[in-house]
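User: quick one, fold this
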Amino acid sequence: MTAGSLAAEPDRLVISDFSTHGIANWESKTFSNETVYTLEQQDQQTVLKAVSKDSASGLVKKIRVDLQQYPYLNWRWRSDSRLDGLDETTKEGDDYVARVYVVVSGGLFFWRTRALNYVWSSNREKGSPWPNAFAGDNAMMLAIRSNQDERNLWYTERRNVYEDLKRYHGKEIRYIDAIAIMTDTDNSDGRATSY
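Assistant:
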């Protein structure tokens, strides 16, 4: 995954610039074993590489974002891997070569925490939503890419997070409190490498 430059633009908020700040401003969150996140050079730019071997850990950046001011999330990603034969609606199949979360904190009322996961799906059609197998409707999944997409090719994404949260959580949400990225293969005992 890559991030853009830090050029001062009033309508743009840079969540991360890996070439300038690395991953120092991101916190690690482990669910099962460690996915290895490193920085490397590709095509004259610094990118984040994720290698998962029967692991599930992600990187979280706590940042409060006003979606009325910054409704769009932009990112680039690429995967060298595929996860085949998974039913992602089940706990046994809840693995993804890459995913980007937006998180709305429930504060002390953790059960009110909401998330929207933009995922590189292994078996769902692009554009299809479903509840997360572990968190139910509190964490909705949305297939942005699938196994039909070519491996080893960069894809640029742009999502209106404000509209997506309204559509998939059924209410207007003005602020998100964190962004997370993750490559995980723990439920299927698989392996994946993504950027």
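User: anything notable?
Assistant: The helical segments are 18-21, 161-169.
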